[in-house]
Amino acid sequence: MSFDGKAFRNALGAFPTGVAVVTVSDAEAPMGITVNSFTSVSLDPPLVMWCLDRRSERFAVFTAASFFTISVLGAEHQHVSARLAKPGEHRLQNDELVATESGPPALADALAVFECERYAVHDGGDHAILVGRVMRFFRKEEGAPLVFFRGRYGALA
Predict the structure, then answer these.
(1) Per CATH, is 17-145 categorized as 2.30.300.10?
(2) Per residue in 67-94, pLDDT tens?
(3) How many other CB atoms sit within 10 Å of the CB of residue 51?
């Protein structure tokens, strides 16, 4: 039996996910990448994880970063998410960002923000699994999350 990679990806798309942007402070300017693989790992110590494709042109920058910030996106962030999900320019503009204590900025008006120190990087096949220890976090009380389902963006009321 052959394995149909496209059918596998489509089946995975039947699981709706939230959307986040991970940011790092690069030498030139803050850089971001869209992820839908963000999840919690542990409450004690407070750990979260996300996955990064090894073929990404941003792979070396993100896996080498000592600190990263994860911004959980609201429905109003679809344009930023779409731009940072594609190859090309991934620098962020100051008007899209807010400062954090750990260095890498967060997206303005994110539903939640997690400031993380790199805890571990694990092999995950064609992806790397990045685990971060949460140093600080905050969340907004209101807002509709941006979700991804069957290859399209959506929102929950």
Answers:
(1) no
(2) 999 999 999 999 999 999 988 778 887 7
(3) 17
